[in-house]
């Protein structure tokens, strides 16, 4: 039986211009809201803290709160 990546949280290593998949999945969770972010829609993350963000607004707030 093949393992499906549907509804499975991926583990990623965030890089400056992309990310590397450490454990396969179809989404990651927003560090602030907890919202599931499909990997195809992932646009915002922080390399230093290795956290993903669902929207530009959430990413900006997280950056300003540091």
Automatic annotation (TrEMBL):
Pfam families cross-referenced by the UniProt entry: DUF2093
Domain of life from the UniProt record: Bacteria
Name of this protein: DUF2093 domain-containing protein
Organism: Stakelama sediminis
């Amino acid at each position: 039986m093949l393992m499906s990546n549907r509804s499975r949280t991926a583990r990623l290593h965030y890089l400056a211009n992309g990310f590397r998949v450490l454990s396969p999945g179809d989404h990651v969770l927003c560090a602030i809201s907890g919202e599931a972010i499909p990997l195809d829609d992932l646009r915002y993350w922080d390399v230093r803290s290795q956290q993903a963000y669902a929207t530009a607004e959430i990413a900006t707030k997280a950056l300003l709160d540091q």
